[in-house]
Structure formats: structure tokens, C-alpha cells
Design goal:
The protein is mainly alpha-helical. The protein has 10 helices and 2 strands. It has a two-stranded antiparallel ribbon with strand order 1-2.
């Protein structure tokens, strides 16, 4: 459900010619709905951009500097409720992954990708880490390889092809070193 607010309505003004402006905001239920996001973007004002930027910077400080991941997630979402943008969705995806909320992290990263976050290689890298971290992966048809491990390798491969420039960083990630498939051998021999 999209929260709708009527702006510019004045009960004293009986003019039938005056248009009613609808302001669309996201909420918890519409945060990952692309139609709702598009509608909210058309309602963005300079003031709402400034308010969202302030909330985004607060979220970055909470998440990255103060290591208060849950509070950072709430602040990222508050920023998105005001003004949805690809950078905030990208950062939200990272925070959600750090908070072990992998499914929602993938949703946020998908939205960032659909909104043309750049560089694409960074989204692929983050998605790869999320899949490498996800527990209880089903097995591939070979009966040995985990599906999520396979997705992690495929996404990282494409991330490298699209310009991700720090393969050694990937090998240092705990989620990668704990994969059931030894992904480090793939990267040592492949890159």
C-alpha cells in the first residue's frame, strides 16, 4: 500500500479548478516494489532530497563508523521512505547482509541494480558475498556442489569481467573461505 498525502488542499478554497497534488512515499510494505518506487521518485522535491541525504549520512555513520548495524538499517530505510535512490539501496543491502538478513539484502541489491547503480561490478561482488554466506543451500544436480556457492562463483566471475578490481579482497571474506566448495582454488587458478 502506498502512503498518499494530499498537499495544497485548503478547505477555505472552494475553487474547482485547483488541482490536487498527490505525494507518494514508500513504506515498509512498498520498499521493494518497483512500481511504488517509480511513483515515489516522481514525487521527490529538493527539500525531500536534502532530508533523505541527511538521513543517509546518519545511516552511513551508524553502520560504518559506529558499527550499529540495526540502527543503520533503520536509518537507510528512513532515507528511502523519503527519497528512494540506488546508492541507499546498495548500502542497505550491505548492512542487511552484515545483519544476516540475506533474502532482504538480495532484494535491496536487486533494486539498486534495477536503478542502475554504478559500478555494476560492486553489486555483483556484494551479491556474491551474500550467496556465499547463505546457509542451508540446496545441492546442485551433481549432488555435491551447493547452489549458493555456485551462484557466488558465477557472480564473482562476472564482477571481475565487468571491472571489479580487487579479487584478493574476495578471498579474505569469511563467507568465501567457509564455502563448502573451495572457491579459493577457483580464483587462484582462474585469476
Amino acid at each position: 500500500i502506498i502512503a498518499i498525502t494530499f498537499l495544497g488542499c485548503n478547505n477555505n478554497d472552494k475553487s474547482p479548478d485547483k488541482p490536487v497534488t498527490l505525494k507518494t512515499h514508500l513504506n515498509q510494505n512498498t520498499l521493494y516494489n518497483t512500481d511504488s518506487i517509480k511513483a515515489a521518485i516522481t514525487s521527490v522535491t529538493t527539500a525531500s532530497q536534502a532530508a533523505a541525504q541527511k538521513k543517509f549520512l546518519e545511516a552511513i555513520d551508524l553502520y560504518k563508523n559506529k558499527k550499529q548495524v540495526t540502527q543503520g538499517i533503520d536509518a537507510f530505510k528512513a532515507s528511502l521512505f523519503i527519497n528512494p535512490d540506488e546508492k541507499t539501496y546498495f548500502e542497505l543491502g550491505g548492512a542487511l547482509a552484515d545483519n544476516i538478513n540475506y533474502e532482504e539484502a538480495l532484494k535491496a541489491l536487486d533494486i539498486a541494480e534495477q536503478m542502475n547503480y554504478s559500478p555494476l561490478a560492486n553489486i555483483l561482488y556484494k551479491k556474491s558475498l551474500v550467496y556465499a554466506s547463505m546457509p542451508n543451500s540446496p545441492l546442485c544436480n551433481d549432488g555435491f556442489t551447493n547452489v549458493y556457492d555456485s551462484l557466488a562463483v558465477a557472480l564473482m566471475d562476472v564482477a571481475f569481467q565487468t571491472g571489479y578490481s580487487q579479487p584478493e579482497q574476495y578471498l579474505l571474506e569469511k563467507s568465501v573461505t567457509s564455502c563448502s566448495t573451495n572457491l579459493s582454488l577457483y580464483f587462484v587458478h582462474g585469476y
